[in-house]
Amino acid sequence: MAADHTVHGVPSLSAKVVGSFAYLTVKDRLPTILTKVIDTIHRNKNKFFEEFGEEGIQAEKAAISLLSKLRNELQTDKPVLPLTDDLEDVDSWNQYLQRQQRLEGDQELVSWFKSPWLYVECYMYRRIQEALRLNPPISDFDVFNEGKTQSFFESQQAMIVLCTYLEGMRKNIKELSKSQLSEHFNKLLQVALWGNKCDLSISAGQDNSQKVSPIDSLVSLKPFILVDHSSMVWSTLISTQNSGRTGSVRVDIVLDNAGFELVTDLVLADFLVSSGLAHEIHFHGKSFPWFVSDVTAKDFQWTIRQMMAANHMWMSRSGVQWQNYVKEGVWSYHDHPFWTQPHEFCDMAADAPDLYATLQAADLVLFKGDLNYRKLTGDRDWKYTVGFHTALRGFRPAPLCSLRTLKANVQVGLQPGQGENLSSQEVDWMTSGKYAIIQFNSSLAEQ
Ligand SMILES: O=P(O)(O)OC[C@@]1(O)O[C@H](CO)[C@@H](O)[C@@H]1O
Ligand SMILES: [Mn+2]
Predict the structure, then answer these.
(1) Which residues form the Damage-control phosphatase ARMT1-like metal-binding domain (predicted)?
(2) Which of 1, 54, 378, 424 is the most buried (most CB within 10 A)?
């Protein structure tokens, strides 16, 4: 039987296409990230010594040696190796490697430059975790922590603007009309969308004096939203209210990055709860450090604590409110090994049925960020006009919406000619983070 990486003749993005964005990422970006990780571990040598003595130093050396070997395997296109640590997901990863090998056929071994980009990129982050797990004293060290905390502190000004907006609204939220609520909803949905922009500086001001408000900048960013299904997201929320259901409305947010983006997500979640549009928010994060800036449980708790401790009245008031939501169970944080695996989401029902069942209990699921979009669409070379519903290939646990700035060259659901027009004007429109989508799919059949 012919086995390959195509679905309906649509191939997976892969570094085997020389010059493609996937190729450049594997060739340049991933080794750079590994070098930074090695440097970070080395710079923390003294800390490891203070905490664990000589054992800490040995662990630092051993982890660095494993990571240098990993970088060499990547750069010389060596075969992808099975994992050897003790995490609960090892079997699943190793089975996935076999699955990839079957797709590859007998001719070639699965390797960095030949296999699907999504797979090898996820695998790199899992191997970083392996290098730490195999060296127990430093297993819990988060190699990306410094960057995440720095991005939080650098965007304080924009956070203050958001929390001030939130507090202003909270005061008379019960008196707002449906249309006023919908206006606030659209704004905060867009703030959470642009929070995914890679540079984190949504408020254009670079200096630390006058900052442009992340709310005010929404108008000028609007033309860069290529697909805007926000009215369908709103209708979904409203219809759950109008349906006369007695149960509480639950919104799940599949988080992406820590720092400013996480705060925009928490502000949106706060609005949903305090307006009564939702009664319960489930946040889904990663169980270990992932794709440099993704949220882990520690980041989630740290962020709320930092907000509470902030030296600004509305920021700390928001932090206290969020801590209460967590205490009362109105907000809950969840992680599942599936989020740090390479599977496309259409595999979830079969490969992580418990997680799929969890999402089925939501009234709406918001997927933040670029990587989640790649997994929603299988990271394939789809034609721009293919429907989102088609690209999801049966993944529809609940009504869902992707909030994503474009940082990888996969995009579906555009109007005829829209993608071609953009390509003729800006070669990097799919990877610069300048454009964005709010793309919705109902849980029903084809819309
Ligand atoms: O998911 P996010 O945080 O929005 O983006 C993740 C990302 O930076 O990593 C990949 C490239 O290495 C791309 O998918 C994307 O640009
Ligand atoms: Mn991310």
Answers:
(1) 25-422
(2) 378
End-to-end CA distance of the chain: 34
The answer to whether ipTM exceeds 0.95 is yes
- The Cβ of residue 9 has, within 10 Å, a number of other Cβ atoms equal to 7
> 195-209: per-residue pLDDT in tens?
998 554 443 333 332
Q: Is the CB of 164 under 6 A from ligand 1?
A: no
Q: 10 Å Cβ neighbour count for 1?
A: 4
Please report, as a single letter, which amino acid is at residue 431: T
Percent of the chain with pLDDT over 90: 88
If you search the block for the tokens 């902030």, which residue do you land on? Answer: 310
Concatenating the DSSP letter of every residue in 345-413 gives: GGGHHHH-HHHHHHHHT-SEEEEESHHHHHHHTTSB---TTS-HHHHHTT--SSSEEEEEE--SS---S
* Domains annotated on the chain, with CATH: 6-143 (1.20.930.60), 146-441 (3.40.50.10880)
CA of 291 to the centre of ligand 2 (A): 5
Residue at 330: amino acid letter: V
Q: Is residue 381 within 8 Å of 11, Cβ to Cβ?
A: yes
Which among 112, 196, 202, 291 is the best mutation to test ligand 1's pocket, defined by most ligand atoms within 8 Å of the CB? 291
pLDDT in tens, 287-321: 999 999 999 999 999 999 999 999 999 999 999 99
